[in-house]
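ARCHIVE CARD
CATEGORY: sequence design from structure
SOURCE FIELD: tokenized fold
FIELD CONTENT:
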């Protein structure tokens, strides 16, 4: 039995129409949820549980999100429902030139309270036998101060009982009042993480890295055993004690929408690793899933797009 959990925030999404009279589209979005969905798809039909860990409100939108995640085969038993809270929300506004702008209401989101009121200890118990927990720099960014320390203690406790921790940087400057806080948080996670899945763009923004090799050097130097540095359409670099391998993505002729490229890569990569593939073979699987996702619209593409 494979058990894997993804920890983070999923928000309500409202995509405004391009003209005032065009209808708005309602949905949801979150990087760690995307990865949970692609993990669940990749592990469908196996003896596997893919759990999403977050907090929502007791409103109808939260209920709808949970139903949608369950329809994707994601286990929601570890989703906290908080009576006086609501999920975070973002609006997408598309201008006449097709340029999208994002506006967030997430300061008071239920997800920020996912570890409050003893839930951190309950999760330590619940996730103790899990093979893998996954989180991102967004998970760290939405949990401030004591909440972030609680998350670190949870990860330490899980890592101490044999759960692998995997981390994607997903650096979002607006979540970090000072980039030094993000650099410090990465380093703290590196102390417990078995796998790092950073992307060169994120790391260049924070550390000024010139190459995937420079990113891999730092994460390996921090003690992370397995590092995969993504670089958009260019090869990713897989680095561990066994050496370094560049793995080229599949050519994608029509890139429709790169939303969730990295998240879906992570889902494909981690599922393949959990099923026993070596890192370079798992990276090829990550590329394969990401290629399907960027060839269609939206973060979570129709299931038949990722089945082939
Ligand atoms: P992120 O979404 O985290 O910024 P990247 O842009 O590095 O991630 O892309 C993640 C993965 O998505 C890449 O490793 C690759 O598999 C795939 N990908 C992204 N852009 C392209 C592209 N233009 N052509 C082919 N594959 C791509």
């Amino acid at each position: 039995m494979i058990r894997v959990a993804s920890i983070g925030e999923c928000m309500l999404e409202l995509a405004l129409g391009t003209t005032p009279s065009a209808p708005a589209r309602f949905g949801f979005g979150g990087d760690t949820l995307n990865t949970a969905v692609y993990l669940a798809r990749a592990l469908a039909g196996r003896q596997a549980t893919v759990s999403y860990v977050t907090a929502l409100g007791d409103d109808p939108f939260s209920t709808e999100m949970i139903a949608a995640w369950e329809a994707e085969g994601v286990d929601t038993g570890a989703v906290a429902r908080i009576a006086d809270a609501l999920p975070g929300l973002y609006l997408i506004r598309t201008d006449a030139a097709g340029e999208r702008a994002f506006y967030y209401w997430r300061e008071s989101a239920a997800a920020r309270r996912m570890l409050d009121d003893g839930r951190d200890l309950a999760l330590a118990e619940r996730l103790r036998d899990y093979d893998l927990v996954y989180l991102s720099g967004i998970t760290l960014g939405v949990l401030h101060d004591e909440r972030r320390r609680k998350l670190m203690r949870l990860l330490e406790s899980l890592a101490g009982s044999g759960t692998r921790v995997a981390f994607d940087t997903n650096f979002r400057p607006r979540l970090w009042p000072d980039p030094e806080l993000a650099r410090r948080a990465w380093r703290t996670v590196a102390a417990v993480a078995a796998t790092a899945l950073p992307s060169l763009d994120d790391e260049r923004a924070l550390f000024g890295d010139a190459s995937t090799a420079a990113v891999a050097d730092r994460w390996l130097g921090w003690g992370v055993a397995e590092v995969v540095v993504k670089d958009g359409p260019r090869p990713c670099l897989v680095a561990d004690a066994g050496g370094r391998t560049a793995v080229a993505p599949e050519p994608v002729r029509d890139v429709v929408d790169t939303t969730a490229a990295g998240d879906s890569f992570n889902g494909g990569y981690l599922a393949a690793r959990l099923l026993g593939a070596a890192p370079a073979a798992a990276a090829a699987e990550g590329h394969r899933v990401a290629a399907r996702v960027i060839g269609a619209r939206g973060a979570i593409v129709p299931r038949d797009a990722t089945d082939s």
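CARD ANNOTATION: The two ends are 25 Å apart (CA to CA). The domain at 2-9+32-60+110-307 is CATH 3.40.1190.20 (UDP-N-acetylmuramoyl-L-alanine:D-glutamate ligase).
SHELF: design records, drawer C
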